Amino acid sequence: MALPLLMIVIGLIILVWSADLFVDGAAIISRYLGIPPLLIGMVVIGFGTSAPELAVSAISAWQGNPGLALGNAYGSNITNIALILGSAALIKPIVVHSQVLKKELPLLFLVTVFVLLLIVDGELTRLDAVAFLLVFAGLMFWMIRQGLKQNTDTLGLEVTEELDEHPISSGQAWFWLGSGLVLLVLSSRLLVWGAVTIAQSLGVSDLVIGLTIVAVGTSLPELASSLIAAGKGEDDLALGNIIGSNFFNTLAVVGLAGVIHPMNIPHEIVYRDWPLMAVLTASLFLFGRGANGRINRLEGGALVAVYSAYTLYLINSVVGG
């Protein structure tokens, strides 16, 4: 038991660090290639913060552990809204702008419903997975077009300004990119091996391990960036980071896992985890439409309380079962 637990801890540490290394390398290379700051922020950084979920779910599917792959993706979505955004709102209330209410949040909810329509039959076929990836590609195209019209992106500008102040050679950037990618894969395999071994030794489903330990671990980049953004009062970054990550997890992470290995959908995901994910997504829309148009500390506390209750329920189901 000690060795698998140690592998999980080591895997998570290397996973988060390698994802950061990979993102930094990709952002710097993008800058050298003349890619606009907006695209660096939306695409490179957006993909990078979800790289841990993508790597872990892909490895899990490849090794025939669908519960871990799905639990990681949907558990990360629940963690992002309930734990991370709730905690960020406790630090400082988060303003929800009208554009987010009109476009991104309703779209995220529609995507959540779309996913249910394809998994409610208890199967994720390769065709379903391809549909996920096609919808994700369409959404990315639409978001990039919308962003180019505004021509602003705070995160992308921060990256380019940092590079201007502290120049890094393209050779070093390529080394970071390659090293980060290799370490992502290796650390994901360590993490998956540790999680599956513990699940088997305790008689716990890999779905529960994916929804809890692995989901929180792979969401650490979102946790760090959202809490920092909230502390600085950068509400767009805090909320946008979570919404973007949930789009990515719901469509790209699950889609890639399904293409690698079609899988059966555990009953619990359809009747327990998906409804909570949908309710949490809808709650952001309702909170934002309140009198102050923001997620206040009381609402943030409620989100964290929901996450705590959900986690305790999962633990109790394991102990009681």
TrEMBL record:
- Provide the Gene Ontology terms for cellular component: plasma membrane
Just give the chief location class: membrane
Membrane association type: Multi-pass membrane protein
Residue spans crossing the bilayer: 6-26, 38-62, 74-91, 103-120, 126-144, 173-196, 208-230, 242-263, 269-288, 300-319
Task: Write out the annotated subcellular location.
Answer: Membrane
* Pfam families referenced in this protein's UniProt entry, alphabetically: Na_Ca_ex
Query: Keyword set for this entry?
Result: Membrane, Transmembrane, Transmembrane helix
Q: Where is the Sodium/calcium exchanger membrane region domain?
A: 5-144, 173-315
As one GO molecular function, the record gives: calcium channel activity
Name the GO terms of the biological process aspect: intracellular calcium ion homeostasis
In terms of InterPro entries, this protein maps to: K/Na/Ca-exchanger, NaCa_Exmemb, NCX_ion-bd_dom_sf
Q: Which NCBIfam families match?
A: calcium/sodium antiporter
Write the protein's name.
Answer: Calcium/sodium antiporter
Record organism? Methylomonas paludis
